């Protein structure tokens, strides 16, 4: 084992792949039926609307990243308010990424089980979850360059079938009748899940310390990713609403019904393959980027030293990768998709808000920049109010666990 800095091996293309795959994972496969049932065809319009709101958060967030490059992303941004604030923001972001990973691995297992006639027993789900986590951890320990090449292939394999089936639906089936707008209560219930579709666009910030061209390329990659997410999810949701395929109650893989309605068994198989590659890409991007946060915290002495160990041959933060694998396994075995998605979104809103506040703090800003930053912070607060008390309690418990690790590391210094 060795404690060395991570080499700069991430270019602009790698940053874009991490951002896109960090966001496009489970939501596009797991949510269309739920949103269509809640607000009908209007669900498709929630995605471009949410993208505009998200840009009000992402633009000042991107400016903060360009102004404060460094290893660990949020660890650097939070440090504008002091060392402990840097630790808490980095740990909060780490929690968000782990909760998102745990949420999406549930959906991956749902789709994998469709390839068999085996009844989805709880023990089998648990075994598949653990195997998926172990495989992705091993791939990322084996080298960053290899991991990014695999991510490029997974991106292509998941994007083409989704876009193709969405366009087929819109070209062969009449557009759905929108009717009167849904009641506000129904729309509010869908807002947090729609925002979850965009969560992850900032995935590449964690590797800013390994970027060859600094934070500017990462900032641009994030903004482009938001546009691509909105377009993709809008097409898929509108296509689903146009076809409105019958979905059995309790169905955990509703987008299979869209593929079946359009192309029969071949369409279902196409969606199944796209879902597996999409979710693998999302989880793989998460496992590539997120351990860099805990590695940065350990390198500063804010987490136990072993977490910051770098593999002597592969030059990857394998101590942090193993830590993340262990924590996400526990989270995945303790909760389902929606609960974990809400916890992830709540934690991410806190990271966005504090990062924007740090950008406002480190230098004098023009009145327009101040207004933009404050708007982003207020929007983060507004989205956070949609979370349940249980989600807040879970986040508080995970933050407390981080505080205990911080205190242990401080005693060891």
TrEMBL record:
It is a multi-pass membrane protein. One of its GO terms (molecular function) is transmembrane transporter activity. GO terms for cellular component: plasma membrane. It holds the Pfam family AA_permease_2. The keyword Membrane applies. InterPro entries: AA/rel_permease1, APC_superfamily. Keywords: Cell membrane, Membrane, Transmembrane, Transmembrane helix. It is found in: Cell membrane. The chain crosses the membrane at residues 42-62, 123-143, 155-177, 189-209, 221-243, 255-280, 321-340, 391-409. Its main location: membrane. Signal peptide: none annotated. Belongs to the amino acid-polyamine-organocation (APC) superfamily. Basic amino acid/polyamine antiporter (APA) (TC 2.A.3.2) family. Major component of the acid-resistance (AR) system allowing enteric pathogens to survive the acidic environment in the stomach. Exchanges extracellular arginine for its intracellular decarboxylation product agmatine (Agm) thereby expelling intracellular protons. Probably undergoes several conformational states in order to translocate the substrate across the membrane; keeps the substrate accessible to only 1 side of the membrane at a time by opening and closing 3 membrane-internal gates. This is Arginine/agmatine antiporter. It comes from Sphingomonas kaistensis.
């Amino acid at each position: 084992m060795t404690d060395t800095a991570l080499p700069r091996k991430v270019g602009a293309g790698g940053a874009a792949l991490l951002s896109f795959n960090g966001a496009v994972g489970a939501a596009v496969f797991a949510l269309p039926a739920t949103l269509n049932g809640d607000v009908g065809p209007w669900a498709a319009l929630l995605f471009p609307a949410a993208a505009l709101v998200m840009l009000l958060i992402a633009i000042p967030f991107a400016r903060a990243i360009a102004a404060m490059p460094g290893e660990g992303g949020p660890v650097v941004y939070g440090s504008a308010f002091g060392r402990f604030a840097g630790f808490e923001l980095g740990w909060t972001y780490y929690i968000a990424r782990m909760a998102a990973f745990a949420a999406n691995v549930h959906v991956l297992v749902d789709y994998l089980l469709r390839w068999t006639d085996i009844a989805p027993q709880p023990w089998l789900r648990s075994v598949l979850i653990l195997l998926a986590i172990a495989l992705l951890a091993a791939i990322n320990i084996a080298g960053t360059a290899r991991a990014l090449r695999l991510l490029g292939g997974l991106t292509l394999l998941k994007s083409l079938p989704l876009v193709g089936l969405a366009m087929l639906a819109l070209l062969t089936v009449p557009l759905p009748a929108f009717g009167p707008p849904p009641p506000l209560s129904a729309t509010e219930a869908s807002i947090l899940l729609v925002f979850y579709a965009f969560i992850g666009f900032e995935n590449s910030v964690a590797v800013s310390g390994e970027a060859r061209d600094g934070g500017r390329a990462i900032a641009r990659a994030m903004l482009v990713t938001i546009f691509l997410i909105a377009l993709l999810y809008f097409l898929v949701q509108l296509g689903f609403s146009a076809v409105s395929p019958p979905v059995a109650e309790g169905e955990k893989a509703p987008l299979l019904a869209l593929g079946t309605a359009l192309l029969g068994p071949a369409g279902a198989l196409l969606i199944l393959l796209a879902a597996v590659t999409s979710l693998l890409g999302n989880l793989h991007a998460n496992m590539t980027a997120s351990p860099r946060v805990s590695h940065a915290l350990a390198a500063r002495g804010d987490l136990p030293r072993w977490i910051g160990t770098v593999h002597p041959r592969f030059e990857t933060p394998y101590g942090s990768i193993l830590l993340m694998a262990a924590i996400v396994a526990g989270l995945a075995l303790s909760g389902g998709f929606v609960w974990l998605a809400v916890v992830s979104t709540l934690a991410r809103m806190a990271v966005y808000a504090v990062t924007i506040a740090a950008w406002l703090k480190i230098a004098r800003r023009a009145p327009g920049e101040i207004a933009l930053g404050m708007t982003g912070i207020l929007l983060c607060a507004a989205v956070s109010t949609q979370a349940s008390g249980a989600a807040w309690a879970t986040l508080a418990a995970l933050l407390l666990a981080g505080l205990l690790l911080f205190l242990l590391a401080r005693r060891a210094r």
